[in-house]
Structure formats: structure tokens, C-alpha cells
Amino acid sequence: EGVMWGLLSRPYHVLVLLNPQSGTGQALQLFRSLVQPMLVEADVAFTLFVTERPNHARELVQAADLSQWDAVAVLAGDGLLYEVVNGLMERQDWQAAIKKPLCTLPGGSGNALAASINHYAGNTRASKEELLTNCTYFLCKGLHAPMDLVSLSTASGKRLYSFLSFGWGFISDVDIASEKYRQLGNARFTLGTIQQLAGLKVYKGRLSYLPVETSSSVSSAPGSPSEQNSHHVPCSNGRPLHILPQPAPGAPRPPHEGSWPEDSLLVPFDQPVPKHWTVVPEEEFIAIFAIYQSHLGADFTMAPTAKLHDGSMHLFYLKAGVSRLGLLKLFLAMEKGTHLDLNCPHLHYVPLRAFRLEPFASTGLMTVDGEPLACEPVQGQVHDQLCRIISG
Ligand code: ADP
Ligand code: MG
Known about the structure:
By secondary structure, the protein is of the alpha+beta class. The chain has two domains: 6-148, Rossmann fold (3-Layer(aba) Sandwich); 159-386, Tumour Suppressor Smad4. The chain has ten helices and 18 strands. 45% of the residues are buried.
């Protein structure tokens, strides 16, 4: 397998974007006490930019002259890297900009990508200062590799780029509800899970996807007459939301929209998914979660086989009917990544290239890379190796 490593050529200069509010609010102190001395020792020059509000980093990378820096690092949680990825994709020159090597330095409460990269490097599980030290060391080495991104489109016309996850239901609700416990760091997710278990909710909608296997065998024959998909007609109760993605006449469009990476696997929301897709027959879920890297957090190995650029989203969906105890066992097994070994009949796992989710009601929130997204029909596909990330 071609890894296509790159190496930052010395001397190099890094832009460090830092969210002082992330995690337990220690990011700036961690930079001064831990990161900066290592960069100085390794002769890596840096420019520190401390964000003052949400979207500050996004606006900066949207407009900045990127040639000043050889890499862009984020000392925060996954949320700030999500801003950076989307800011880069919003540039006129996104095709070049998104190839700027990125680096995640874990300083937030959710540091899933950092935990994943630490795992891919063969390091033992680490969190807090130890994980930050490992990731800073990767930055000092300067090796970078390609990483897949997922494009997400919503029925109302939003378009987002995601490097980590898309979720709806239980796991997303834990993420959102536990925001207020950010001060606890990573432990916020354990507390949030126990709390959410008390009021288990059912989420109704239609889930469709293109599995990795099918996509490689039929991709050369679009429209092949596979009858595998027999559920693509709208169901008779008419509940699926069909918000047509047509913009209002004369609605402003981003000037570069036509040149965004093409979603070759997707069709518009007003059309049924292609015939060779799979439509999940069940329509009642506890959680739907697609993760594209191995770890959901320092203590959650959700997709043990995932790689930086394996061309797939690792979809887990949990059907309604699972007991609270069953769910708790799954959650505890996820620490080591053994949740699939439990053979829970309600839990399904599929590696896939594309998906569509059509909720039957537009209440509540979904999450993209841990950040909230209003609930509406969403579809997405993998874009192989679209960005680059500093890794061990
Ligand atoms: P955490 O892992 O603790 O959630 P993140 O880096 O993911 O930390 O950031 C959480 C949210 O804070 C993101 O939505 C991000 O846009 C926002 N944010 C970024 N900078 C600031 C700031 N200076 N003040 C408040 N919020 C910010
Ligand atoms: Mg976050």
C-alpha cells in the first residue's frame, strides 16, 4: 500500500491556532509549558493565534496568505480543526489550500483525531499531557500523510466537510448534552452516557448506504439492475422529509461552487438512492454513527480497523429494542474496541463509501465532528485522501 508520506522541509514555520476555551481551559498554559519548549528545541518556528470566538479560526484560514506557513496546527479539540478544514474548503483556491499539512494538538475535551493518530503510530493509549506530548513530537518530526474527508450535503443546501464523524441519536446527544461538563475533560462523555441512558429515545428515519464492497464491484456499471434495493420508494405513511435541495431563484451561491469536489456517488434528494445501494429495512434507531478514524476519544476505540485513508466511513447503527444494560455493555466494551465481539443483535456495522439519512421529524440535532447540525435529510460520501495530516 502506498502511504505517500511527505516531510516538511527544514526550517519550517507552523501556524498554531489555539482555542483558550477548549477542554478544561488550559490550552494556552499547555502551549507555553509543553508545546513551545519542544518546538524551540526542534527548531520549528511558529506563529501563535489565540481565537476569541467561534469561527475566528475559520475566517482566518479562509482569508489568510497560507504561503507564510508550512503547516497549520490546532491546539484545541476536534471542533477547531473542523473550523479549519471548512475554512480551507471555502477558499477560491481550496484545491491547493486543503493540501496544506494540518496537525492536531489535543487540548480539548474531545480529541478523537489525536487519539486515532497516536494509535496508528503504534503508541500505547495516551491522554492528556502524554497524548499532547506524542502529537507535538509528530509535529517536530514533520511527517505528513493523506487523510480522507467526507462531504456532507443537507436537504436545505448546506455543504460541510468532515474529517471525523457524522452522528444522530444516542452518541450525538451525549456529545451535545455533555458540553456543559467540558471542565471534566474526557470524563464528560462517560458522565453524559450514564445520564442519557436514563431517558433513552428512539429516532425514526430511513437510512441508506453504499457499502465499500458493492461500490468497488459496481462502480464501473452505474445503474446496474441489481434488485437488492427494494425499499427506495417513499413509504406509504409519507413521513420522510423531502425538502428539495433547490435554491430559491437568484439565491446567492458561493462563486466556486461548481469546482467543489464532485459527489459522484450521490443523487439529489428528490431522487431515490441508486438501485445498488442498500436501504436499511428498520426505521427505528437508538443511534446512527459513522466514524472515519479509529477513536472517538482517548478511551473509545470505536472502529479498531480504521486507517487515516482507508476510503471508508465506518457506520454503526443501533436498532431500537436494545436494553439499557445491553447499551451500557456496548459502551464499556468500546473502551477496548471489543463491542462487536459482544454480538449484540441490535448493533450493525458496515464500512461504506456513501450514505443518506432521512429523518422522519426535524427535531433535535445531529453532529458533524462533534459539532451540532440541525436535524434534516443529510447525505455524504468519502473523498479519498483529500487533505494531509501530520502523523507519527
Ligand atoms: P472542546 O473539545 O473542548 O469541545 P473545541 O476545540 O472542539 O474544544 O471547541 C469547541 C467549540 O468552541 C467549537 O465550536 C469552536 O468553534 C468554539 N470556539 C473556538 N474558539 C473559541 C473561543 N475563543 N471562545 C469560545 N468558543 C470558541
Ligand atoms: Mg469539541
